[in-house]
């Protein structure tokens, strides 16, 4: 580990599974219960905003009852103690990484606990429902707030910063993601091209497992604390 200085970590739904938040593609996962095209596209929101707002109101309420698990806690510890560059890029829209204490964090798919005003472009913390069409606290417009979530067909956030970090990475670690959704699924190849070591920590081989130099399979709540211990104890 001596030559590792810059670490980029990608997390997905699997890192929050042991906190009781459903993943998307596991058996019984969210995309078995709801069709992506009904709740997670701009077209769905235009067609049936109540359905979409109700779905996200339920999810927003649910995540506030969950707590970080040992995987979030270990990553927060690594963030606090790692002396080199480190970036945690999460596809998750829950706030469990930050509640565990992580600071060097990008929510590339948005944040459940934010609302976004499509009239004035303000983003603001939001814990309550949006279905009742509250006025935007920033500009006063009515009916213009939407979940600050990146839907299918929309551009993930802060991609320039993420790609820059990937080109600088000595180690890229992917945790709890199926590797089914781009651009995140392509990060491992970007990192490899820049010469980074690559490690997958996931319950099972992901769709992109082939691209990782090393893979460990099991629950994130066990694998991640053990890996962080290794890295910090180097
Ligand atoms: P998925 O549901 O596609 O994949 C979750 C992965 O976590 C699977 O490979 C599981 O095997 C693994 N897993 C489940 N429980 C685990 C545990 N306890 N420990 C470790 N691994 C575990 O979720 P994502 O890959 O995050 O996008 O999905 C990517 C994106 O697709 C999401 O951000 C979301 C979704 O549609 C948007 O909503 C834009």
**How many strands appear in the DSSP assignment?**
9
Shape: globular
Helix count, per DSSP?
Answer: 10
Q: What is the H/E string?
A: EHHHHHHEHEEEEHEHEEH
Percent of residues in helices comes to: 25-40%
Strand order of the largest sheet: 3-2-1-7-8-9
| Average pLDDT taken over every residue | 96
The distinct ligands, each listed once, are: 2'-O-acetyl adenosine-5-diphosphoribose
Round the Cα radius of gyration to an integer and report it. Answer: 18 Å
> Biggest β-sheet, characterized?
6 strands, parallel
Distance between the termini: 6 Å
| Poorly predicted ranges | none
By secondary-structure content and strand pairing, the structural class works out as alpha/beta
**What is the percentage of strand-forming residues?**
15-25%
Write the layout of secondary structure elements.
Elements: E1 7-11, H1 14-17, H2 30-33, H3 36-39, H4 42-47, H5 49-63, H6 70-81, E2 86-90, H7 96-100, E3 105-107, E4 110-117, E5 123-125, E6 145-149, H8 159-168, E7 171-175, H9 187-193, E8 197-202, E9 214-217, H10 220-232
The chain binds 2'-O-acetyl adenosine-5-diphosphoribose.
Can you walk me through this structure?
This protein has 234 residues and is α/β, with parallel strands linked by helices. It has 10 helices and 9 strands. It has helices spanning 14-17, 30-33, 36-39, 42-47, 49-63, 70-81, 96-100, 159-168, 187-193, 220-232; strands at 7-11, 86-90, 105-107, 110-117, 123-125, 145-149, 171-175, 197-202, 214-217. The strands form 2 sheets. Strands 3-2-1-7-8-9 form a 6-stranded parallel sheet, sandwiched between helices. It is globular and about 55 Å long. Residues 12-14, 17-18, 23-26, 29, 40, 91, 109, 150, 176-178, 180-181, 202-204, 206, 219-220 line the site of 2'-O-acetyl adenosine-5-diphosphoribose (OAD). 2'-O-acetyl adenosine-5-diphosphoribose is lined by residues 12-14, 17-18, 23-26, 29, 40, 91, 109, 150, 176-178, 180-181, 202-204, 206, 219-220.
